[in-house]
Amino acid sequence: MKYLFILISFFSSFLYSQFNRNTDSVVYYDQQANSSLKENKYSQAQLFTEKSILFCQTNHKIENQADQTFKLGKIYYNQKKYDEALINFNKSVDLLKDKPLSITKALALHYIGITNTERGKHNLAQTYFDKSKSVFKQLNIVDSSQALTLQKGIALKTNHEYDLAISTFKKITELPDSKNTLKTKTDAYYQLGLIESHLKRNDSAIHYLEKALALTTKSNDLNQKATILLAISKYYKNHQDYDRAYTYLDEHYQLKNYIYKLKNSKSDFDDFKKFKTKEVINSAIQKEKKDLEDKKTYKYSKLISILAIALISILSLLSLSLYKNNIIRNQNNMLLREKNNELIIAKNKAEKASKARSEFLSTVSHELRTPLNAINGITHLLIEDNPKKSQKKYLESLKFSGNYLTTFINEILEINKIDSNKLETENISFNLKELLINIQSSLKELATANKNYFNLDIDKSIPDNLIGDPTKLSQIIMNLINNALKFTANGRVNVIVKLHSLEDEAATVYFEIVDTGIGIPEDKLQTVFESFSQGSIEVNRKYGGTGLGLTIVKKLTEMLGGEINLKSEVGKGSTFTFKLKFQIDNEPLAIKEETKLYNDYELKDKNILLIEDNRINQMITRKMLENKGITCEVIDNGEDAIELLKIKRFDMILMDVHLPGINGTTATKYIREFDKITPIIALTAISLDENREMLLSFGMNDVITKPFVPDEFYSIIAKCFNVSA
């Protein structure tokens, strides 16, 4: 009986053990109520408890009726319905007045005290606390007084009665240390720390929190320790001591991760025991299933092998094209050096070669998107088809490779657009500080993975709203920070943004990205900004990457009127700096509404016409649509699609831009002559000469780029359905 009060949080299970085992209806209703409470379905829990009370009343089970009435009071209390809670707590006490003293009566008196505390009636509450304490004492439950006092203090704190709460918690902290009081004293110090922190009494707050943390080393309560570490981290964060805040937060996450692993290991052990039992009983069935799984595994393995070979072939083709391109560029450079006396002719040849390079890479990038869409699409469908764990690992690797190649192709296309002067800058109003904070948040995971301290220092004198190109500025900063975090481990990455000068309605802002990473050799400082160049072959093998990031940074910085500078020393880190000039916007920024994610029910039962000539893309697109409950009809040319749409209506049209015969843009123009309502979405591997605005000008509602990103694919379709509705 001495440690009984520790189990108050599981009071429903305790009551169950007190019931007569033959009262099946009480047991049933109690189990149903407990199940509903676990899912926070208070109405159902209340209904089952009331049925249990009625059953006890009908069968004259007074003690069981008192237990269930107390339970109903707790349900009301947890919903903060204090009047209904008090009625049931008092009723439970009345039912037990002629019965021997019991735990239920002691707890009901205690909860009457807590409820009156919530209502601000402290004198009345103290009376019931004293009565409860007396009953526990008569029942010889000594340790209950500490937990009751702790609950009383928490109720006072919740009701903002901080002085009373502090004195209540201090009574607990004055108790001598023992195994039975350790957890309660730790909670009391923790609650005192929270109150003192709320009241801005900083020295007292950190004193109590550190006392609580020290006690956890004795109790070895990992969950309690994790909670206290998080509170200390928040305290230092609020006082801008970010180093300590990060240290405690890191320890908190490590501890939570350790707890999670302990739970998983126990779960895995339980699953293993169940599996072994089932294996003994159903050995014959398992053998048959294994044979079927082996056949399925063989099919999956064969398909994965085909996809892997296809991906390797694409990478080899791209590598060969890039190698040939570099040879052409080197030959052109040698020709320019040898033909100084024929400068004009050499210049024309160089421009022609550059144009050929851009068109060649643009064509390769565009043509690779179609097979890459097949690889990414089939991989996505296989992952959604619930593969085995061993197969899922290979599919995830294939998905990563496909996404890597997609990013590579996009970077090549981005550089070609810049070189071909097809990339335009925009001038819109944006909040620089908000932009930088969002970039920092998006890269925190990479900083944590490499155990780096990632700091953002923004000059408060920088105007809030500037006019410029936030998209290209984000590309520059994210590329530089990503490089700094990737090439730094157990170090520091600082992003410093200062106001360099302010004149008229223009502000010049200075950007500096500093890391303590591996650094760049002096002989490589000039070449790192060239395409496909990195510090060394060893660096490329160890850290990966295409060597296009800094090329894009240099070109975009120059487009925005700045110049990127680099200082670096091997083993000590690198520093990138640049300055950009912005106009100041004195008007407040318009609030942008957040884009809502799609819901499956928005797509279900829709009828879509897919106009696509590639068989593999037909299969992938149809399957992705059917997975969301969409009916899909396929036509492989624009002429037949136009004739069909004259006699049949669809909810949406997915139009491939490059079709045999008339292309997708021409087909869209014809369709818009007799149908201006049905949404038409372009499907395209956007090339150097294509852009979104050009495609929309033909009457298309939106554009989906190949290879498809599933979430973007479904979101754009759902958005067009909502607009047309």
Write structural notes for this entry.
It is a single chain. The chain is α/β, with parallel strands linked by helices. Helices cover 64% and strands 11% of the residues. It contains 27 helices and twelve strands. It has helices at residues 11-18, 24-38, 42-58, 62-78, 82-95, 103-118, 122-138, 144-158, 162-173, 182-198, 202-219, 222-238, 242-281, 283-338, 343-384, 389-419, 432-442, 444-449, 470-486, 537-543, 549-559, 600-603, 615-626, 638-647, 664-674, 692-696, 710-724; strands at 428-431, 453-458, 465-468, 492-503, 506-515, 565-569, 573-584, 607-611, 631-635, 652-656, 680-684, 702-705. The strands form two sheets. Strands 1, 2, 3, 4, 5, 6 and 7 form a seven-stranded mixed beta sheet that branches. Strands 9-8-10-11-12 form a five-stranded parallel beta sheet, with helices on both faces. Strand 6 (565-569) and strand 7 form a beta hairpin. Helix 2 packs antiparallel against helix 3 (42-58), helix 5 packs antiparallel against helix 6 and helix 10 (182-198) runs parallel beside helix 12 (222-238). The longest helix has 56 residues, at 283-338. It is extended.
